[in-house]
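ping. complex inputs:
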Amino acid sequence: MSDAGSPNMQKPDDGGQSEHLNIKVTDNNNEVFFKIKRTTQLKKLMDAFCDRQGKSPQSVRFLFDGQRVQPTDNPDSLEMQDGDTLEVHQEQIGGC
Amino acid sequence: LTAHDFGTLLPSDFGGAASGWLNDDIVNKFLSVIIEKEQQNRGYVKSTKKSPPVHAYASQWWTTVNKPKGCENLTKWSKRAHLQGRQLLHADLILFPICESSHWTLLAVRPKDRSIEYLDSLSGNHARYLNKVREYIGTELGDLYIAGEWKEITHRSSRQNNSNDCGVFTLFNAFALLRGRNPGEAVQAEDMPDARRQIAATLLQGDASGEF
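pong. complex structure:
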């Protein structure tokens, strides 16, 4: 499931399978799958997605089930489950 | 929030584009601050996981709901908010800010009253927004949704007198609804410069205890 974008891909599997989650990150055009630990800060995954898509972290917002994701959040703190999706949104701006 | 965000609210103080078009971070954060204050005032405790009396969805809901299976996807949001299915009917007021084509507007759903209001400081076409939120309510409620029960309210917002202030109207119209006031009477175009400063003060303080 995970691809070269996974922050932990090169690391040895030092825990049980249930410790890891597959998380999809998508901006509706691109989908990137990550396999991360429940306690891994989502900053890793957000930065990796931005790097890969050539986006500045300030220009996008990550949402999980309608909640804004902070870089310091992790799957445990957000009660994420295997297969969940992070939505990536562009800045919205309006005046007229 | 960053100086960039505040630059969309008070451009001359924070080096933003002169137009002063609000961005989503300002809109969503302000709504969450005033909603949280209202929840506190009503004695709602988040950790109880009960349905909140008032709630605001993030403005990205409109993007999400317009994707394939959008309404079903939005039920994941409502689950997190404890407003899924029939829980929706326990809420007094749910706010749905919309940013589309560089224009901010507000949908306000009052489940207990069975009313849906669309507030637009340019008095644009409202049918699409009302229809979409009805589709969403129908998805949540299933058989409990009886279309004829839900009345629609439009054209209560005052008009903006420039091409910049729709986001400020959106936030202050929301503020007026939360305080039980008629937005059209409480929020006027000439109030907008002060409103921008009040929004900034509220965001910096993280608390909406000030006077309306």
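Strands of chain B lie at 22-23, 54-56, 93-100, 103-110, 115-119, 151-154.
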